[in-house]
Amino acid sequence: MKKLVILCLLFPCISVYSNEVTEDYFDISSNYATYGEYKEAGEYLNKILSVEPSNYDAIELKNVILRVTNPQTKSYLSVNNKNVGNAFSLKKQGNKNKMISTLSATTNDFWSCYLLADFYMENDDFTNAIEYYKKAINLKPNYAQSYLGLAQSYTGIKDYKNALDNINKYLTYDKNADIAYAIRAELNLQLGNITQAENDINKALAIEENISYLLIEAKILYSKGDYETAREKLNILSKNVQTSEVYKYLGLCDYALSDYTNALLNLDKAIILSDEDNNLNTTYNEIKSKLENK
Q1: Distance from first CA to last CA of the chain, Å, rounded?
Q2: Is 136:117 a contact under the CB 8 Å cutoff?
Q3: 45: Cα separation from own chain's centroid
Q4: Spatial separation of the C-alpha atoms in residues 183 and 27, rounded to whole Å
Q5: How far is CA 139 from CA 58, 94, 103, 154, in A?
Q6: Cα–Cα distance for residue pair 259/146, rounded to 1 Å
Q7: pLDDT of 56-115, one tens digit each?
């Protein structure tokens, strides 16, 4: 799957539609293009052009897709948006501060705001990311990816309610987005909506069996109290993914199943990989005390 940012670098702004059917087809096509699924995007563009052969936006997006799939062409956006083009050049030179100032100089340009938001989110500056995603949405309310980025940024600051509102908004544009269902599953889990979380992760896994989705599934199973099944899934995951979170939930499952020795070993690994969870240290000490008092 292509990175979500690819369409941002190549896709021009959209004009206003008069035909609701072609508008829906265009939204579907643009979302497919965002994920790099160009064949499917082309199918919906052809449907538009069979009804409206002169539809400017469909013709433009079709041309953009041809450019994307041709590795010798330059970015559409960098060629047609001087401000963004300058920012790309500065980024290539390694001058990120100048790139930021160049993009932020024009507050009424959608792509400048959107790319700034993406940059901040990728660098875990979620407060600035939220600010610029909101600006992008004000300038272009129907661009779906802004809501996805905003949901991810709110998740980054643990504002799960606002994150949930924005991921729900994104799903109105793309009802088959596995990443959106996975994010919503995590958000519902954090908000204590376990049944909804389980429904969402099942939807995500039905679309794509992504390793990160399997971890969310295991966490949901743990929250449901199904420690055996959660541990089985985590054991399989740990063979390919050695992260603090995997070992944390393995340890918690072991603890819940009174397997204190393995619980201690797994939580020890989790703490070594990440020392940011103070509650984990407390649980570790509880288990250690139980073993010492045996």
Answers
A1: 51
A2: yes
A3: 25
A4: 21
A5: 21, 29, 15, 20
A6: 45
A7: 888 888 887 776 665 545 454 444 555 566 665 655 556 567 777 767 767 788 888 888
